[in-house]
Amino acid sequence: MNRRIFLGKSVIATLSFLTISPRSISSSLMPIRIIMGGYSPPSTSFSLSLKLIGDRLNKKISNKVNIKYAYNVLDLGYSGGYTKQLVEDGALDISYSSVTVGGGPELELSSLPFLFPSNEAAREAMDGPLGISIKNQLEKNPKLKILGFFENGFRHISNSVKPIRTPEDMKNLKIRILAGKFPNMLFKLLGAKPIVLTLTDSLSGIKAGTVEAQENPFSNTVTYNIHKYHRYHTNTGHLYFSRAIFVHKPSFDLWPEEIQEEIKLAVTDAVTYQRDLRDQEEIDAQNIITKLGGEITYLSENEKKYFLDVSKEIYRNLKNEYSEELLKLVNL
Known about the structure:
The protein has about 325 residues and is an alpha/beta fold.
């Protein structure tokens, strides 16, 4: 049996769901089972937002859908990035994931360091032409439909070695990063030693002490218990990432129009809800870090400027690599 199909079915079996593939569901069969999943505990903004989608569907069309959840596939032995594959295979109908490759040059440009000055600016971009262009690129995969973007947020550096206050403090620091051209360039310019690892592998390395540093929103750092191993944190806010909300397109296309429309409306509400929760999660996470004895270095504007100056090298040749139309999507 194909390994990916087997893994997908194992998720359903583990959760005592039906083992029939979503691809074989006919729009004439009611209620339609819809499995939503992710890679964070049930208490996080991502899981609560999936629950909001399910609650709305149950309220509006409860006789037509049968909602199931697999909130955290990490508990089932999968990496966070595998949720996209599970949707492609039809094992999950709806999920989310950080996507750093496969979204064309638009997605690449969205990962430029220090691109967005605020959450509001980033959200406006992802809800506007930039997000639409990334969506169109991702939907070239015939198995996927993009419903919107949850907020992963601004990323900050944590490590087990020393406080980070200047670019010089980054020298030779072995840091786990997400895949992507510009994140890799940034940390090399800072003098660090960036390595691309899955979330699961990075957590193992952090616990073993072989991965000295990582970068994530504060809330992710706490969600995955990284703060228990990393004492030092710095609010660099060097990159902003979203998490695309995927639906298994072959299944979605078979569902009645009423269900399709209700899902779209529910996701729109869930995106706003998740972003609001995310703001509070970041505040709560910082309190949790400091209460456990962690140290958070809050950079002054002048101190952050040193990091910005390093990143200018990345921007220098953009006009030679990307069209004017693409650069306008990120206000460059």
